[in-house]
Amino acid sequence: MITEVVAVDPETPEEEAVARAVEVMGRGGLVAFPTETVYALGAAAFNLQALDRLYQVKGRPKQRPLIMGLDSAAWIYRLAVDVPEAAVNLAAAFWPGPLTIVMKRSDMVPDIVAAGGETVAMRVPGLALVRNLVAELGMPVVIPSANLSGEPSPHDAAAVLSGFDGRIEMVLDGGRCGSGVETTLLDVTSDPPRLLRRGAIVERDLLRYVPDLEVCV
Ligand code: AMP
Ligand code: MG
């Protein structure tokens, strides 16, 4: 397989580049692209074959669930059940942005995305590119970091290619991206909600919406 590299502006993405990537993901292909944190390796979140291949290509253990990238918070009412008010307020405050929220999953979320668990992790990414990909595809895109499992997360297309050249269909090259800081991971399935991973959204800001936040890290 030849990995196609397509230049893109991640803030004001060219329609042509988005359309080509959507066409690839729509037929089950894997496309790497920048997010505001690191490059992600994307696949259509409801395409079981694509998801299976994503785990294989990354060498990712199947018990490790994937984050779903959304184009709007409206998706949480389809992908999650028992959505707590805190989640709605957090989404309104921090999306688009580097906050990943874990909720109880609905039947719409494939088992493989949840790694067989009862929850799903979701966020609306800060870059217009990722939101446009989801919007044009018409379904969420899973967005694990675009590195082989155990390797450092990539911040440019060259680093993505060093792991995946010839093994994925496309890289959208948006130049160097990412704060270097991961998304903050917050689980709202428990009461009080739990901070699972520190990241770009700091605790002080979360406490305004989740005053009883339990810090597990
Ligand atoms: P990455 O491995 O780069 O995709 O980072 C995603 C992080 O989110 C990993 O630490 C995952 O374990 C975590 N994650 C994804 N889904 C869930 C979930 N449903 N519950 C808790 N953590 C999750
Ligand atoms: Mg990773």
Strand percent estimate: 15-25%
Rg from Cα: 16 Å
Bound molecules: adenosine monophosphate, magnesium ion
Helix content: 25-40%
Structural class: alpha/beta
Oligomer: single chain
Number of domains: 1
Number of helices: 8
User: Quick one: biggest sheet?
Assistant: 12 strands, mixed
Describe this protein's structure.
With 217 residues, the protein is α/β, with parallel strands linked by helices. It has one domain (4-178): Alpha-Beta Complex (DHBP synthase). The protein has eight helices and twelve strands. Strands 1, 2, 3, 4, 5, 6, 7, 8, 9, 10, 11 and 12 form a twelve-stranded mixed sheet that branches. Helix 8 links the parallel strand 11 (194-197) and strand 12. It starts with a strand and ends with a strand. The mean pLDDT is 97. The structure holds adenosine monophosphate and magnesium ion. Residues 144-145, 153 line the site of magnesium ion. Adenosine monophosphate is lined by residues 64-65, 67, 102, 114, 117, 119-121, 144-145, 185, 196.
Can you summarize this structure?
With 217 residues, the chain is an alpha/beta fold.
List keywords for this structure.
217 residues; DHBP synthase; binds magnesium ion; globular; 12-stranded mixed β-sheet; binds adenosine monophosphate; alpha/beta; 22% strand
Summarize the topology:
Layout: E1 4-7, H1 15-26, E2 31-34, E3 39-44, H2 48-58, E4 67-69, H3 76-79, E5 80-81, H4 85-94, E6 99-105, H5 111-114, E7 119-123, H6 128-137, E8 141-142, H7 157-164, E9 170-173, E10 184-187, E11 194-197, H8 203-207, E12 214-215
Parallel strand pairs: 1-9, 2-9, 4-7, 6-10, 11-12
Antiparallel strand pairs: 2-3, 3-8, 4-8, 5-6, 6-7, 10-11
The structure holds adenosine monophosphate and magnesium ion.
Residues 144-145, 153 line the site of magnesium ion.
